[in-house]
DNA sequence: ATGAAAGCGCTAACAC
DNA sequence: GTGTTAGCGCTTTCAT
């Protein structure tokens, strides 16, 4: 209370601690702590006293002190590639939702293909700043420092896999099988000359999708024509699709259909073709991969292989939540491979 | 060293602390702490001893202990609306980059228009879990708990403003002026009958953009025709644009141009028109707002008003960094309003 | 059912 | 230039 004429004392508004609450409620700090964590183990009257003291003081437990003592920060680190595309937006959404519900905060990190950023985040983990890690990227983390991450912190991988390790949970799709299915669909629509635009081949997913394309071509006995594989994608992005269009126009014997390793590649490719008067799907059919937001809104709406991004995010988060709750690897890691689903829209037509 | 026949002792691999490093280097913990924080204030020989001890032990300072002691977590909270659209992806990218460079981690939170989520994050702030907050959303945070956020934590706003407060830094654009400019451009191309698809009018930005539309129409003396304002957007999304298409088709006297309050609205609208055989821009011109990634790749490429999202992110982060570094409001808040830029592409044609 | 007390790992006065 | 010491705010035995 400020008395008339009395200048406001320069007292810094000291943050209220558990001590203040204890004093006010006439109990010990231990009791306050208990009343918060295990209300049922405190007498009803005491509990009331504590809670009103909390309300009156506006007390909020200090996170750092709690973390220090409890050796748990209630935070997870979500590592994303962080280059451009918005493929990961719904994933991050799902993750944040599940983690927040589970009482965990989400610290994000963009690795940006940079070694120094990876070591930076490895340090974050070693500093005990997070209770778990979710690596959401096509790129297997380059290890070195990463291997020295304490085993006590559970780590999960999404959309890609480190072959031959059981220490991570993995949530991904069968990129190879789904890609083969996409190409098989093209074949079922009568296409025989089918091209492929791979993603950046440094990533496992892109290589798997290329593998699936080859599988499907080979199994029907079509020749595997290298001139129909338009490499050189820098990424899963529009620009890669536009670049591939050059390969298309350079070709004498043009394909009737194209399987792009990602929707954005497909969209960039389609745009480049339309600009030069090539009709889609009248002249060339196109199928993508991912089913991102824009696929359905493009003209023509893109036929594509859907990855269940939201579901994968939810499952991965729930698994990590479970593993974090179990002290010391009480719960084994899981490998979950979800099915993709062909979404037929307008960009593929039947020929013959 | 494991001796033959001796079973591995069940010792938990105790995390290495500053104590271990001190012991190994033959110095006090204070010296280790100093060698890390202010290397120049420690004798070269000692410094070397400390650093090799650190290397040998693989020591990483514990974040919680440091935060508790230093009363600073080196983390910021970035609050996003978290509903669907990927408008914020590049913003988040820019923020993460600048904050990480500045030595801060980024905790994300999606408010999802939910009061309980806002109070949740208010609690995170009060728990001292972050040193600063960036509210990146068109929605002014509903206050209540929020006002009780301690003044010691600097808060900044992006893309929207709380009128009449100096306690936040604000980074936004002149939505009204830029919208008026967009409509003026349409007028300059000979359009006289111009419609508008507003965003969800609960948000300040959407109302400002609507205001700009009205300004531009009025200033040239055109009648302000309510039948040309197609309200009912649930959001800045495709669906809103598709819904607006119904209004378009229901109209006898059709407009020759449409100003959409966001690119995604514009794209949804265009798609719906094209589906019914209406040519863009041959029959109707469309202009958007934002210049998101897909604007340039659509067919026709969308003419739109660009918001400098990356730059706004960088500036906002830098400002917050500065304010967090200054103890106790040493640095005043700023109001930064960046210019938008008209990006002319293919979706508007000149008439007459 | 509750309290006393120890201590999580670190930093920052303050001495020397 | 370096060490001693006193906590930061909380949880958790261990008593009572």
Automatic annotation (TrEMBL), chains A, B:
It comes from the Bacteria. The lineage of its organism: Bacteria, Pseudomonadati, Pseudomonadota, Alphaproteobacteria, Hyphomicrobiales. It comes from Kaistia terrae. Pfam families: LacI, Peripla_BP_3. This is LacI family DNA-binding transcriptional regulator. Signal peptide: none annotated. Residues 16-70 form the HTH lacI-type domain. Keywords: DNA-binding, Repressor, Transcription, Transcription regulation. GO terms for molecular function: DNA binding. The keyword DNA-binding applies. InterPro entries: HTH_LacI, LacI/GalR-like_sensor, Lambda_DNA-bd_dom_sf, Peripla_BP_I.
